[in-house]
# Entry
Amino acid sequence: MTPDRLPVLGPEPELPGLWYATGHGRNGILLAGLSGRLMSQLVGKERLELDITGLTAERFAMSR
# Structure
């Protein structure tokens, strides 16, 4: 589980080809279908059904 209790979905900004779909905690089984669908859209470069801006790995990046 992540510190903010939200999952991490999307690409790793520092390493092309690495994608995250993690941090769901005990709700993982409930969110698996939606997460899988969103990840499929992301990897396939399709339009997303939902705004996942607040769920990307970049929210943990340290300010430079």
